[in-house]
Amino acid sequence: MSYKSDIEIAREANKKPIQEIGDKLGIPTEHLLPYGHDKAKVSQDYINSVQGNKSGKLILVTAINPTPAGEGKTTTTVGLGDGLNRIGKNAMICIREASLGPNFGMKGGAAGGGYAQVVPMEDMNLHFTGDFHAITSAHSLLSAMIDNHIYWGNELDIDTRRVVWRRVVDMNDRALRQITASLGGVSNGFPREAGFDITVASEVMAILCLAKNLEDLEKRLGDMIVAYRRDRSPVFCRDIQAAGAMTVLLKDAMQPNLVQTLENNPAFVHGGPFANIAHGCNSVTATTTALKIADYVVTEAGFGADLGAEKFMNIKCRKAGLAPDCVVLVATVRAMKMNGGVAKADLGAENVDAVKEGCSNLGRHIGNLKSFGVPVVVAINHFVTDTDAEVQAVKDYVASEGAEAIVSQHWEHGGAGAEDLARRVAEVADSGVSNFSPIYKDELSLFEKIERIAKSIYRADDVIADKKIRDQLKLWEDQGYGNLPVCMAKTQYSFSTDPSLRGAPTGHSVPVREVRLSAGAGFVVVVCGEIMTMPGLPRTPAAESIHLNDAGMIEGLF
User: Fold this and answer.
1) pTM of this structure
2) Which of 383, 447, 495, 523 is catalytic?
């Protein structure tokens, strides 16, 4: 049997005018700022007006460690949102925007898949409403103003060897990772080493997704550290006097984007911070606004639960005063088999023993999530090649871990395929059994916070950090940053820092290579192993297959 591609399904969508989608949520037309007929931003005045409303139930969708077999976290988020609406609940979803780099590289888009998608899929995966361009522009303005300040006499006495503010572009371009800037003589400034990150790795992106309003945004931008003087004292963005102009550029980007699923249910798609170097969640503004206008809000966090869910709980929830009522942990039979040692080419054949062998990864995530005091429901994202025996093996294992696994067929059947999952999730969310709390207190030292995550989430024996790193953490504590949460940057493919260690490894250590202070975003980034903040394109990038067909429609996006 042949199946339609995601873009073919999206193209056939029966979209409703965005004003009708707003009506479902009670958003008056005058508070929707339309971008065409099928997407709109929600005005800040309206956001302000609903803050007194009672909050709905918050449902977090997370997943096991990603494998090449696929898990379908966004697809499940969309399918669950549609499923909740199908069983009569007033639900909406909140997901991140897609970055151009991965779209044209290897990962593809971020709008779900099959019959569980958000539309307009093409717009969402390309320029959308221009939020990422605004973030790139604001970041670039600061870059230009730093070098301009140095050029015109360097009143702040910036040590040009210690400018830590890198440039950004929303594309996978490995040639820009490390560059030399300001070559060409006196009129072009003072030559120095520099480099580019991808836009989603910008601290501006992280701040946009954590800021509560424009005033908070401007303050956080001003708090960013951009360079150091010769005496190692920090130079802030506010010292360069760039925060006001940056806020102006980001004014519209701060407003959530309203779109719809294939089944015409409302979705906020807003923000897209890296899930390694940042916290990997959609914006606080979108999530908190959704909770005031819907009874159930389904949102997701990037990568597996050891990165995305941990940061959602310890960073986003802590900063925004949120608490999930239920967590949905996405797994696939195919991924269990891969964790059990089956090669990708052999995943189509039934292998119950491999499924059982690979369930240890799932089990550890269940235990970790429960440690936050939240109830867990496992969603088995169904593939048509899954056999009944394989599915039953996962269900039995999850039951032995004190949780429940429910098969969901949203990829093939949309919301109708997710009704069983939706009923159970709504029941758990309504039960009030969630007793959420982050796994560490603000008062712990920065190194103790790192140890807490490494030992309780990754199940590492110890954290390896040399004196230079420990001294840096101590200095930041002395400067008043000790109460910040830590943002762990490590491989998404394993609980350890070794991407080849699948399953539930023990007996490993977490080596800390570097620490970075994101003073504006409000967390300390802890780099473990090699983490790329500027990806490269693969040997055969997706861009080679993306084109306009004879009818002027986009082909090749996925």
Assistant:
1) 0.95
2) 383
